[in-house]
Amino acid sequence: RRVLFRSAGSGLTSITLPSGVSEIKTGTFECCENLENVNLTNGLKIIGKYAFYNCNIINITIPNSVTQIEENSFYSCSNLETAALSNNLESIGESAFANCAKLKAITIPTKVKGIGKSAFSNCISLNKVNINSRYSFAIKANTFNGCSSLDSINLPSNIVGIDEKAFYNSGIKNIQLHSGVRYIGDNAFENCLNLKEITIPTS
User: Fold this and answer.
1) What's residue 3's pLDDT?
2) In whole angstroms, what separates CA 102 from the centre of its chain?
């Protein structure tokens, strides 16, 4: 079952998703600027494009039934401090958490097969990233662009590439690339003024 909450309104401050809802459709709560508290129930599978774009959410827990977070889902949720992702999450869309200025840490679960371009760009408070995925994928363009507080990141051995401007203008201090990395894109580490050490494999 799919539910679209049309015209939720700028006065909305809190929601609890009813049980049985499998998808939050495109733009459902877009620009609900007073929406702070969101309770997502188990059974939800897809968080659609722009679902919570420019909302005032402070903390979000994605239930383990969710497999997809689509593009721009939480874009510019500027007060979002924590985001606990579903253990069964498979994909994070382009710019899904971009411009979440207060987001401090993120852990990518083991079943994630790909992270979209600019997914965490301009998350200026983001200082800790753990990628635990067991699947092979590249760090896409601009994924951590502008993450000025990000000083280190755990990249597993199954990361196959670093695309252009992936860490552009970030605060990264050191990074270790494993033997699975086949390429590093243009300007991947441009303007990383704090970068002191990078380990590049012979591959």
Assistant:
1) 44
2) 13
